[in-house]
Amino acid sequence: MSNNWLEATLYGIVDLGYAPEDRLPEVTRALIAGGAGIIQLRAKDRTKDEILAWAKELLPICREADVPFIVNDFIDIAVAVDADGVHLGQDDGPLSAAREQFNEPKIVGRSTHSPEQAQAALAEGADYIGFGPLFPTPTKKGRPGIGLENIVGVQETVGSKIPVFCIGGIRRDNLPEVKAAGAQRVVVVSDLLLAEDIATAGQAIISHL
Ligand code: TZP
Ligand code: MG
Fold this sequence. Notes:
The chain is an alpha/beta fold. It has a single domain, classed as TIM Barrel (Alpha-Beta Barrel). Helices cover 38% and strands 17% of the residues. The radius of gyration is 16 Å and the shape is globular. The model has no long low-confidence stretch (mean pLDDT 97). The structure holds 4-methyl-5-hydroxyethylthiazole phosphate (TZP) and magnesium ion. 4-methyl-5-hydroxyethylthiazole phosphate (TZP) binds at residues 111, 130, 132-133, 137, 139-140, 167-170, 188-190.
């Protein structure tokens, strides 16, 4: 795996809440064509057998494009398919536990919801963080929006060391506001996955960052 992903400005999530399960390969290809420099498989409330099967299906597509393939939540699935990494939330245990289960260096990312959590993730050795949700979003139910005011600070401190991907309620129509607030990299889930043409929408997002 190359380190090109460190330059990624768009992080694509293949989220089973939006992507039809019989179209995951084409959705993944479209996200990559749209410029996503890193891809995550996220499937809440699905069985591990299903997620394992989807991971096996999507990994080669990402490999061929030299785009890292990250599994959300499940270290064991990431290890089983030899994914490029895992993404863990605040309640998903220490990052070191994930690293120990991989027998080679892999990407370990962390969701953060405050500047303090962002700093803690950096100190804990995260390879990148997600920072948000900036706005309330149905994709992450029950979490308040954290607003735009801390982006600059987190970007300057944590973002000078590891990639900081702003996330949560970001759409093509509010991207100028998010960028003006200091965001340099974004994760866009629903607006991209529900777009008529995912690849074109992705390119539009990148060109406005
Ligand atoms: N973590 C924080 S917000 C979020 C996740 C996974 C969901 C982002 O989805 P959307 O549809 O782009 O708001
Ligand atoms: Mg999680």
